Amino acid sequence: MNNQPFVHSSSSSNGFPHRRVEKVAGMNKAQPFVKNTEYGGEAGSVDTPSRQLLLFLTTCNIGHQVEVHLKNGSVYSGIFHAADVEKDFGIILKMASLIRDSRGTKSHSVLVSKPPSKTFIIPANELVQVIAKDLPVCSNNVSNSVQSKKPLELLTDSTISQSYHVDLERELKPWVPDDDLPDCSDLENVFDDPWKRGWNQFEVNKTLFGVTSTFDEELYTTKLERGPRTRELEEQALRIAREIEGENTRDLHVAEERGIQLSGKFDIDEETKYSSVCPHNRFDDTFYEEEEDILLDGCNNLTFGDSSASDGKKPASTGKVYEESWGDSLPSWNNTIVDQSWSNSNKHTRQLMSEQPSKDFPVAGSNIRNESLLGEQRNSKIVGASLYKKPSEESVSGLEDINEDAATSDLACLQLRTSERQSSTDGRLVSSFSDTAKSESSRGWPGSSISRNSENSAASPVSNRPILSPSSSIGSLSSEKSTLNPNAKEFKLNPNARSFKPSPTATRPQSPVTDGSFYYPPVPPMPIHIAYGMGAAFPGQQPMMYNNATQLSPNQAYYSPNSPQYPQQMMVSQQRPVLFMPPSPYQPEMPYKGRDSY
Amino acid sequence: MKKPPAAAPVAKDDGEGEGAKFAMGKVYSVKLITGDEFNGIVLAYDSNPNFVSFEEGMKSKKPGDLKNIRMVNANFITELKNLGKVKDPLAKKHLILLDALKSKERDAISNIERIGIGVTVEAQIIFDTLSKTHPVRWVNTDILAMGEVLIRSPYHSDCVFGGPRVVNNEVKRVLGLTRKKLELTDTGDN
């Protein structure tokens, strides 16, 4: 734009249009102040820091609406465009207009009476001062909002739709009551404690509505002995309370309640503190979310009593605690394992570690008791967990199969985790486990399965698939041993299995048979009717009974036995409620147990 | 902008007196030949063009604040009264984002160009509202929309001329809606 001959407003009061042409070239060179590189300096100019600053400040003016005072007293307002820094600092304004002329009369309608000069040049010898009001002088460490302002072209919807007449913002003032408002002084202490106010709600209720309170504290809590021993008891209670509250805790939440600042680092954000999602876990997140609360509760019973939400906080110290309590029962448990394990200590895994051995090591003497709770909870998640009963190879192979499904973290997961983190110590870690396990095999420990487990974990140290440890499942099953069929084969999910197809030669009644268990007699008006029993699931059970196709009227929906079906019963009958009574060995909660054809 | 390395600026004799007089940080009460007076802190000075940059005020503000900066031609200073000194009125490191400044200038110019000369308030309001969604500019007192359609005074829907039919109708429609939204009387047919 500087290259073009300038369009001067003919009204420029000083009449210097044409002499300035030669200055244009000079200004052109000076105009692009390339300030973000080191200023090389022009020949002949003095490169003092002060000059640098002057140039800097001059450059800051660019684009800013400035007021320029001229020698003759006139004042122009315009957008600072350029300055001739090489010569004498003449400047160029854009869209300049006269604000005050040389006679001192202010021009009221500054911009609307006549069009502003598109470009306006002011030589230095006319220039007295250039005033830039509210100029953002930017420096490195200051984030400059002006420079980062969104350009005008980007309009947000709200600015577009905003009505022209609406004030953008009002200055907020605190509310001051009018003088003539009634003085409701009795409302002023509304938030005081109830006994301080002069109003007893129970009395009022009694008076107004005849309602008497029948509240008796002793119905809800222990009766306090109020007698000669009251003071003594009180003091004792206070002492105990103080003791408890002053206890050192590692639980973030408890610590916060007690006002103890647990973590040294303050960068634990709210999410880490209060979320129930365990961070840094490599396995199924959803699993953790559900289990976390349960485990939090369980944690409190542990000797260690910790439930850290952040990892890596309790290394060796916690480990050592573990070690102490299990010193005799886990001779091969060495420090290195513990340290490695806890270097990214996750309470969950710690807990599992704790509970798992304690199950089978009654001498451990630890207070770990919650494995059954955990086990049950885990059951809900793990499809096949309940199937693991005995130290057999099958159970372990089931492990591998279940790999894809199960999303549990476990002793094995601990192995996995530490193996992922410190691959160099994989062998050591795992082997010690297996050693431990083997030494206890006489106690019914699934030694073989552990060793196989170790193979698994060693073989795929970096896979994220959790390996279900039979040990934990055994632990979890302790309460259910009685109900499980010790001889049943364990379930192996075979994704390529064909769906069940009852063979046509299987006993199949040609006519309705009155048999109590599976029978579902056809009723012609019934719309849909499918009854697929679980018969085939049980070895030695009676064959499955289902309705003969001939008994269905043609327009009734009917599931052909050849179509892939899962043996679920769908009883859709509006007219005859039929109770499906499974035969006794059928266990509803484990429908797939021991099925052969699958 | 980085400051030049401390090694050897070409030390031209710029008159020690002047340099010392306008040393950075000095606070002066300045009087100009125009009669203007103010108090300012010296931020920068160069004797070659003999210009001084003042920060208005007597106390140095924080680096993030906006300042009133005055670039004064030292030749026109009539009186200087020393009011003291402040330390480090400017931050050490300086940063200029030239592109940002250029776009700032563009915005400022377009802002001024939006103002119609000698138009009524109503016209200006219409123009502003239209400009949010359509390209409009002033042609004397007429609004040129989409580069093709002219809206003449008094800016009703029947004052829309020119352009292809489609564009014309579009502008008519938008104008009608705008008027309705602004609750201006609309005597034209929509």
TrEMBL record, chain A:
Q: Which domain of life is it from?
A: Eukaryota
Name the GO cellular-component terms.
cytoplasm
A Pfam family: SM-ATX
Listed Low complexity bias regions: 466-479
Q: Where are the residues of the annotated region Disordered?
A: 345-372, 418-513
Q: Where is the composition biased (Polar residues)?
A: 345-356, 421-436, 448-463, 502-513
- Alphabetized Gene3D superfamilies for the sequence: 2.30.30.100
> Which stretches make up the Sm domain?
53-136
PANTHER family in the record: ATAXIN 2-RELATED, ATAXIN-2 HOMOLOG
Q: What is this protein called?
A: Polyadenylate-binding protein-interacting protein 3
Q: Which organism is it from?
A: Cardamine amara subsp. amara
From TrEMBL, chain B:
What name appears for this protein in its UniProt entry?
Answer: AD domain-containing protein
* Domain AD: start-end pairs: 94-183
Q: Which organism is it from?
A: Cardamine amara subsp. amara
Per its UniProt record, what Pfam families does this chain match? Answer: AD, LSM12_LSM
